[in-house]
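pasting for the record
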Amino acid sequence: MQNPASQRALKWAAVLVPGVAIALLAPPAGITGQSWYLFAIFVSTIAGLIVQPLPGGAMVVLGVTATAVTGVLTPNQALAGYADPIVWLVLAAFFMSRGMIKTGLGRRIAFWFIRAIGHRSLGLGYALASTDLLLASFIPSNGARSGGIVFPIAKSLAEAYDSHPGPSARRLGAFLMPFLYQCDVIACSMFLTGQASNALIARFAGQVTQLDLSYARWAIGAAVPGLAAFLLTPMILYRMYPPEVRHTPDAARIAQAELTRMGPMSRGEKLMFATFGLVALLWMTIGVRLPAIVPGIGGGLIHNINYAVVALIGMAVLLISGILDWNDLTTERGAWEVFLWYGGLVRLAEALGETGITKQFADASASFTTGWSWVAALLILLLIYYYAHYGFASITAHSTAMYTAFLVVILAAGAPPWVAVLTLAYGSNLMASVTHYGTTPGPIYFGAGYVSQWTWWRLGFIASVVNLLVLVTVGSAWWKVLGWW
């Protein structure tokens, strides 16, 4: 077995060798030396996100630093990503999720669902998953909402039915853990705030196509295929890997007891709930026009406040009301880590797109699908993109490395822009279903010890196939109904 120093050395080699090798090669015709060096730095940064000799945020900061030190970008250009509104949207949304957890509103919502539909094991699973789905419309950290709110409740309920890792795992816990993880993956795909890198994916899509994948557009496009997958995939898992305990009336009683213990909604919870509703409403109505009831009267925009400003408004309300204090913001480690890697990746990807390398890749790759129908090209390339996630432990690393490249090739094959953008965007989340390390909550649920790795991967593969079929069939039909292609 290798010692830690050797492992670190191998990881750094995996990071540096690809970038150095690219830098030593002559750039293709039409690409400047500076652009080629930027590509080399980008490749090493993505390799760092995959193998992680340092945390992801640190690797991106090193990549940004390298662009400034080598003169590939000026300091202003290298750091410009941190001034991007989309980065501040994610940061502010993370802070608001802190308020949801701090006030206890997230737990209360979970117990409401359990009390209502948690009388059977399948209903209990859907109750917890519905909590995650509702919070995904607001909280971009699936680790916070699923790992921090849903998982502890699920584990305690499993233990209440004497289900522990080992011989009693199949009583309830072995069903709940993969069930909730697969539901979380679907919830991630249904909102721009479903998980942290969705806004980054929307940004990539806009850079390639000039289409605005807004909060409302993302949610509307995902509504029908997402709900279909949310209902169908967990049901199939229940049939294939059912719990021994089918009736869970105690879960509803436990939920009621917890709600009684919590008492009436506190002032903080009420303010948090109101803020949640306000921000979601403002996000959904950006750019929406009122109907003209009388010809020539009305029909104006409801509002056109930027997404990031809406999130900052929500954060400001929580600060002014005292739900959050300054210490809450400065100690929210996850938010600042995402801010660091997010701002850096936004700028690196944007700068790379400006070099023309992406266009050259599209032109060169177009020959691969020459003569194919756009449907065939989309399906084959989507399969490659989707199942490449076996090699990634992060949706962010995967989408940053591959989303833009696959999008330009699919578009070059003649696919309708919205079909290409949305299929890859939603697929970037659904692909995390395949392994126990596909996205942040995976190690949390798998680490509970209820399910073997073989069983987890088998169930994950089945879920991935169902999700993909729903996305391609129901999704494309829904977007056709909407007139998007």
